[in-house]
Write a structure and sequence with these properties.
2 domains; 7 helices; about 0% strand; elongated
Length: about 160
């Protein structure tokens, strides 16, 4: 029983305060019912290892508590993800194009050695890619948490 209480305490710490007691009581009833069924099937009290196995079936406290949290559970949900991916592809291609044009201009003008220009272009591509993906992710995170979705997602026309 100590394992069950420790499990429920760990789970309760992750739940919203407003619904914590109700959810813990519901889960306690479910776990105790499953434990009683296990003990009836075994014909003896369950060992700590068997109780631990039962709690593993219920799930990790963080995962179980996540089911009861309101709002989105991901940075970018499945509705917005295709838009994020499209934006990332376009942004990365455009950034790569500008970087390659800049590389060509610097090499043709001759103000820098070719190897040095290529190295700087790769560094620029990497830092630019991280920036593009990061900014798109921040924008997606904000859009995902808005009550009213943008028109390009919610009201599109064929």
């Amino acid at each position: 029983m100590d394992l069950v209480e420790r499990y429920l305490n760990a789970l309760a710490a992750q739940l919203p305060k407003a619904v914590r007691e109700d959810i813990v009581a519901e889960l306690r009833d479910e776990i105790i019912g499953r434990l009683e069924a296990l003990e009836a099937r075994l014909g003896r009290p369950a060992t700590d290892d068997e109780v631990e196995g039962l709690l593993r079936e219920v799930g990790h406290p963080l995962s179980v508590a996540a089911r009861y949290r309101p709002g989105p559970q991901a940075l970018i949900g499945p509705t917005l993800y295709p838009w994020w991916l499209f934006g990332a592809k376009v942004g990365l291609v455009v950034m790569a194009g500008f970087t390659l044009v800049g590389l060509a201009v610097r090499v043709l003008v001759g103000d820098i050695y070719v190897g040095q220009a290529v190295g700087q272009a790769f560094a620029s591509l990497f830092s630019g890619a991280v920036t593009v993906v990061g900014l798109l992710t921040i924008a997606g995170f904000i859009l995902e948490r808005q009550e009213k979705k943008p028109d390009f997602i919610a009201q599109w026309r064929v």
